[in-house]
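Hey, sorry to bother you again with one of my protein questions. I've been staring at a protein lately and its backbone has me curious. I owe you a coffee for this, so here goes:
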Amino acid sequence: MHRRLLVVLVPLAVLLVAALGVPLSVSVAEREMQETYVDRLNDVGRFASLAETALSTGRTEALQQELARYHELYGIPVAVIDRSGTVLLGPAGAYQEAARAEPALPRIVTAALAGARPEPSGEWPPWDDSALVVAEPVGRDSEVVGAVVTISDLSKTRGRILVRWAQLAGLGLLPLIALVAVAWPVSAWVLRPVRELDAASSRISQGDLTIRADAEAGPVELRRLAETFNTMMDAVENAVQRQRAFVSDASHQLRNPLTSLRLAVESLEPHLRAAGNGRQVYDVAVDELKAMQRMLNSLQASARMESIRTASPVDLDAVLATRVDRWRALTATAGQTLAVDVPPGLRLLEPPGGLGSILDELISNALRLSDAQVVEVTARVVPGGAGAGHGDGAGAGRGGGAGAGQGDASAAGDVVTIAVRDDGQGIDASERAQALRRFWRSPRHQNVPGTGLGLAICADLVGAAGGELRLEAGLPRPDGSGDGFAAVVALPVVPRAASSSGAPAPSPD
């Protein structure tokens, strides 16, 4: 966030410095050039006055020496020429050599011989290498007998300009450096509450409703925002706690009356007549009471598990080690076969309530509801989470997927998909989305024990860990009439350096 703020501020500061510095630099260059031109103009004016006297009297030795001395001191050839352009006085060789490189010289000399003072020649920017040609007529009006011409190399002047520009650039960098030096701590002070709000929101999205933002740091506006955020979270936490407390208390308070009612109903069994409808009504009443007791147990388990909102790393091997033998015994009792194909060394983020409890629920559904012959548990790593959000029966793959999962996979964004598949009845694609809703049950399972809460609770817990529970088509049925049922849990991969996982919680059903 610091860098993004500086990316906005620094270009604006650069534009401001450039808007002020460029005109100032141009002004500095023009002033340096103007001073040089005025110096040369004063020199040729003085030489023109001396040349007029020397030519009229014929005493040119002193002027010749002075022109030579001038060239020797400053390296600037200065010559007195007649109306035909012939050099009368001055270093003729140096003048003629310099004149050949100046195409503007004939125009300036012609204007000077006509009695006018011409404008200076050439372009003056420091990146141009043209010389400065200045000419002054000798004589007045129709009595002009010649001209004094200087050809000045401006390299030194341009060097001074570049030095001045470098100084200005250095001065221009000072406010930029000061801006960065001030903006970094100021932006840290301003953005720290924003970062804390972001971190708090991230923790809250994982289910931790106890997080609060620091309302004592940052600007006044952000402190007010943090206070409002904390007030909102207090209200949300209180509402969630009241809701959970209501579910837990209501189910607990209903347990004893319901147990008493069931005992009372069951006590009527000896008094039923052998003939009549009493036995059928009695059986229906007992079944309904049992269903209500299962519902209360599920509600209490839901309240307990949803109060555990911390996701933590866990080794999938450790979870399976405590579960697989029990699953095999259950499937064997039901006359089914359990196949487990999970690569070793997978480490993932365990949902609140425990990954083992979620897998227990998925295995239980396969045993109770699918009428399957084979139940298969597979796992694989999906790099970058590719396919984690799609309902693709092959995507969470069986055997081939296992080859993709390696114990050292811990790249950011990778997910582990754990699939529980069977070759039983399955459910239609149109019913899969509804199956994750609370209390929903398939019409085919109305007479099968259950509450319709298990998958919904598992989906909520997996989502609290940043994962996803999705339903797909399962294994092909033995008779070729379609596919069974599959539940796929996708959870983030955790690097091996992460902390150890917490203990699993009670089963959601």
Observations:
- The chain has three domains: 2-159, 206-307, 311-492.
